[in-house]
Every structure is written in structure tokens, then in C-alpha cells.
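notes to self, project folder thing:

trying the whole complex as one job this time. last attempt i did each chain seperately and stitching them together was a nightmare. two parts in total, labels are on each line so i dont mix them up again. if this works i'll redo the older ones the same way
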Amino acid sequence: MRAFTQHQGLVAPMDRSNVDTDMIIPKQFLKSIKRTGFGPNLFDELRYLDEGKPDQDCSERPINPDFVLNQDRYKNASVLLARSNFGCGSSREHAPWALDDYGFRVIIAPSFADIFYNNCFKNGLLPIVLEESIVDRLFQEAEAEVGYQLAVDLEARTVTTPSGESFGFEVDDFRRHCLLNGLDDIGVTLEDADLIKSYEDSRRKTAPWLFGAGS
Amino acid sequence: MAGKTLYDKLWDDHLVKQRDDGSALIYIDRQLLHEVTSPQAFEGLRLAGRKPWRLDANLATPDHNVPTTDRDRGVEGIVDPVSRIQVETLDKNCDEFGILEFKIKDQRQGIVHVIGPEQGATLPGMSIVCGDSHTSTHGAFGCLAHGIGTSEVEHVLATQCLVQKKMKNMLVKVNGKLGPGVTGKDVVLAIIGRIGTAGGTGYAIEFGGDAIRGLSMEARMTICNMSIEAGARVGMVAVDDNTINYVKGRPFSPTGESWEAAVKYWRTLHSDDDAVFDKVVELDGADIKPQVSWGTSPEMVAGIDGRVPDPEQESDPIKREGIVRALKYMGLAPNQAITDIQLDRVFIGSCTNSRIEDLREAAAVVKGRKVSPTLKQAMVVPGSGLVKAQAEEEGLDKIFLEAGLEWRDPGCSMCLAMNADKLGQGEHCASTSNRNFEGRQGFGGRTHLVSPAMAAAAAVSGHFVDVRELMN
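result (full assembly):
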């Protein structure tokens, strides 16, 4: 996995709450058996005026000029500023894959849905929870100032505005460690293979009905 | 010391390692696999040269992409080439790695969350995962069941463990008795309407109270299924006689001495009387009316006698903006009566409501009636080949067909419209599925979430009606 230590980038403010993963990447694009190539269809139904199809050349499609990511000033944004409960709904990891493929590295919101939040960390994408009042201010600043950027430091756990103001954020130590070092967490878990085996052996004795059926 | 909640017990029983940083390794007893969220996980195993840790813990079936008509030709009959490749990829991966799969022509094929319990592959006390957020369904059996992402599917395949941090405990207690015509679906929609779509975020929810205890396993599955729509990855109901009776005699269920030992353990799977929950929400079952969602989030629900809200009455600006946007998308007017919403299609199916009891309830309403001529389509999609066979044995298929509903083959179908079953732009659908998000059932489609009985009542009326009026 790609490591994440620090990132500074242009901020795109997406001002709506409860953005669900169907909205982030609609179902017709989940038919792919790859992890890449979802970027052109990120927020497909908001971004384009027609109905998107898999494997389509999106450069010719009619775009929705009102959608935030279609505005010139937010071109090449890599920090998504969002509202509460971002990423709710389906567990599809295609949602972080699409955000990543588009070029986002950081998503800042007052709250995230659990599964989406977890999926981000598996893909080198950093979801940051900040208090609603701080997010409100960042929205105001990002909308007021063209070219507004934020600097994120995962080691120090800070988000810094262009004026130099810093906000701290919380992140689990394990997730932070894996992201900072770009660790494959399967490898980390397999370091405990003996523990898993001994748990399994004891369960096999106490709960034999959990084993063997269906094979 | 306070007693343990059901979640605490399940957590402790599956804990392999508690790490100092707060994360933990949880052992997974069962992984269900389907074609949409597994290909990249198998590819990951292949690239890393890893093998599945324990083959017999896995069970696979294609469900999201499969067509619900003309199934005789199997995979070859899938018209959309991209969908076909995905189903073929699941077949190839299961064959290559040696994982049991109910393929498209197997009568046991169906929606993963229907076939797990049906086969006894879902047993009380198990930890269960699937790359699908509705895995919470299996919590109805006193299981610790999580929806996971594809990286975690790969992680579980490779290690039989999931990295988790323990969640907080929430009890949602539904007291008293439900009125006639009020189902598990209405209960869970009312709960989501109360606590909101993020109300359960970070919690494992246990559903309890007399009204829940009085429900069938099918209804409990419907309730746990939609825990995720309240933000909770995990929903559960304690084990009781209903649970044990349901599990008995199923193909994967234990027998003989093993059964006796299992039942003894399963009887312990309930929260202790002195267990402490971080949050408790109580509802009175008698207050719950048949529910209809009017908006684009499952928390946007009203009773059948209610009205679409007026955004002017909402003081929170973000919520107000959400209502305005939802009404625009749904093509509804503020204060419009729910019963005035005209429908184009009716969908009875999905992992929320496609089990035999759901079909019986819908059939009871349409029996002797006809689908409204104002509808373009009304379809019934059973949850599995075995549910379909059972329904046909009971003659339910004939009741649906005589009333003018279509009787389809099993799959996820119009719940998420990955196959050919979808809504057209602007069409209103009474749907027994779980999500009313923008575009969920088709580009520009408008979904109203309801129970099977309410969907059936809507089918014969062309608009929403109180199913209780048709039951008299």
C-alpha cells in the first residue's frame, strides 16, 4: 500500500451531508474486476448530465456545470471537504478506489460511516474527522479563497490552513502506523499465525460444529 | 462488575489477540462471498502468493449481477458481457482456490444473506463477514456479523481474522406488541426514522424488547439487515427458541451430540440482566404504523397516514437543505399526503424482504385482486432457488401471476439494479429493499421503502394505501 505521511493540496468543498457510496460510485461501475480506473466515474450522477455506462469515454459526456468538481477553480483538488456521515450505505471499496483514482488523498468531514472510514485506510487515503464548527469554517474559507489549500501531517496529526492555523485530529494508532509505513496489514496479522492456529485448535474442541460443514 | 452484553460475549469468544493500540484480531467463523466485492480480493491473494487460511469457512454464490429471467442458459445467458465476466470470475476463483460455491444454475443459489441462514451456514454465535454491508442480517441469529470492504475480504481469506476495534453497545428496545399489518420492516424503518442514518455509527445494536421477541426469524433478519441503514455495522437479536427451531435440521447445522452441545452454548447468547449499554433507545411497538420512505435517505420516513414534510418547518439549515434536495429529486410537494404518491413500479425482493414469510405476506394481500393498470410493472424476486421452490409448493407463484405480478428467478435484482431490472428516470417504485438513495434502483429512479405487505397493497392500488384497510 502507498504510504501517507504528509500532504498539501487544493481543497474542494462538497456541501451536502449523508453522501452515500452509491453516489460516490454508482453500481454499474462495480462490475469491474480491477481496483483501478474508477476516477472518471467518481460522483458520476452528480458530475454528468447523462447516464454513465462502464467502459465509456467520459470526455465527450455532458457535464453538470453546477457540480463542485466541474468548476475550474477546484480542478486538481486533492483534499475533499465534506459534511457529516460521508460514505454511508454500501460497503463497496470501489468508493475509496474511485476517490483515490480521481486524485484525492484526504477527506475531511465532521463524521464518516464506519465501513467507508475503514476502507479508506486500506488504500492510502486519509479520512480526517474534525469538529463541525471547524469544518464549517474551512468551508467558508475554501469557498471564499480561490486556490485554498490545506496541509495535512499524519505524523503530527494536524491540518494546517494557509494562514498557519493548525487543528489536531485523532486517528487510531494501528491505522496511523500502517498508513505512515505503507504496511500490508495481512502481513502484520500473519506475524500472529501461531496465535490464530492455537485459537482455532481450542475452538475446534469446544465448538466442533463450526468446522468441517460445507467443505 | 456489570454483566456482559450479547456483543461483549460474542467479542470475547472470538478474540484472538488484543493489541496494545486498541485494535484486536477477531476470528471469523464464516465468510460469504459474491461476485462484486471478491474478484480484487482473490487477485490480491494471487499476487502475494497466498492461499486461503481455511477453505471450509467460506461459502460463495453469485447474486448481484444475475438476471432474474431466462436462467436456463446459466452464465451464458447473462446478456451484459461485463456482468457475465464478473460471475465467471467468481466461478473461476472458487474453482481455483477450492471454495464451495452455489453456482447460477444450482437450486441453492440466491442472495448471500438469504442462503446463509437457509443452509444453516449461519449458526448462532458465529462471527460472519461478507463484502456487503447487509451482512448485519445474520445478527438475527445472535451472530457477530460485519459488512466489510474488499481489502478485508482478502484479509479474512488469508488470515481467518478481521482487525477490529471494539464498538460501543446500544440497545434498541421495542416494547409491547405490534399492531396487525405492522411488520419487521416497519419496525426497522421507524427505528431509523427515530435515530437517523448515523445514529448507530460506532455502535453494535442489540434489538430487544417484547415486540422483537415476538417476531419470527425472517422478521428479525429484516430488522438486523437494515442496522447499517442506521449507521451500525452490527445488529443482533438474542438467541431464543425461535432461533434454535429455525436452525434445526438445516444442511450445515450440527446433529446428534454436536447439536446438543451447540444448543447448550447457544442458550447463553443473550445479554446478562445486569449488562450495561452505552445507549438505550426505546419504542412502543403499538405506536408503530406501516412506514413509507418519502426521501433519499432511509431516515426520511413517515407513517402511512402521514405527509411529506415541509422544509420550511425544519429549523436546522443542513437538514432543511437535505429535505429540499430530496423533494426535488423525488418530485414530491411539501405536505403531500403519503397516500397520494402515485407509483410506476413495485419491487418485492432483496436481502431485506425476499424470504418465504415476506412472500406469504405479500401474496395474502394480492390474493383475489389485480395489479393496478396504472403500474408499468410489479415484480416478485424470491431470495433463493429454495425460497422460490417453497413458494411454488405453496401456490404463491400462482397467486402473484393471477394478480398480474411477475414471478422471477432469485438474485439482488432491482434493489441495486446491477442486472437488467431497474427503474426508468423519474419513476416511483414501492420497494421492499433497503436503500432509497438517489439513483440506487436506476438512474433518476425514485424509491419508496416499504414492507412486502405494503408493497403488495400499493401494487393493487397504484398508489400507497394503508394495508390494514385491505386486510379487513
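what i see at first glance: The mean pLDDT of chain A is 96.
need to look closer tmrw
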